[in-house]
Design brief:
Blueprint (H helix, E strand, L loop, with lengths): L14 E3 H13 L5 H13 L1 E3 L14 E6 L5 E7 L10 E3 L3 H6 L7 E5 L5 E10 L5
Parallel strand pairs: 1-2, 4-5
Antiparallel strand pairs: 3-4, 3-7, 6-7
Helix pairs in contact: 1-2
């Protein structure tokens, strides 16, 4: 089986606010020495994001602190995670850092879309977003 590299053109559009994009860019740049791969993946995603005003984000868009329900199409495994900043990450509690491969892949996605994205071991997974719950107070 041939392993194809996923290109930005293969990925669905993502949407972010300018302020969140700036904050995540700064985070990724500051973490490049500690997390080079995840930082590069996050920066690549931010680079292709469509910037929106906060009130103009599409419904069920993944933003920081959102809860995301998704399914791994290969295994049928369903998970619910919360996308958080690295300091708040706790895998056992379902809080996934945006500076992980899955976190970088989820930011800006909307419910109903799928993305092929590498996991921590570098294996491509097809993840389908089933639902997004906005953070409390958003």
């Amino acid at each position: 089986m041939q392993h194809d590299t996923v290109t930005a053109a293969d990925r669905p559009a993502i949407h972010l606010t300018a302020s969140e994009c700036d904050a995540l860019s700064n985070l990724a740049l500051s973490a490049e020495h500690k997390h080079p791969l995840s930082s590069a993946m996050l920066l690549a995603e931010l680079d292709r994001a469509e910037l929106c005003e906060p009130g103009d984000l599409p419904a069920q868009t993944v933003v920081m602190n959102s809860r995301i329900q998704f399914v791994d199409e290969a295994t049928g495994t369903r998970r619910t995670v919360q996308l958080v900043y690295p300091r708040d990450a706790d895998i056992a509690a379902g809080r996934v850092s945006v500076l992980t491969p899955i976190g970088a892949g989820l930011i800006g996605m909307t419910a109903g879309h799928s993305i092929r994205w590498p996991d921590r071991e570098g294996h491509d997974r097809l993840l389908r977003i089933e639902g997004v719950t906005a953070p409390v107070g958003a």
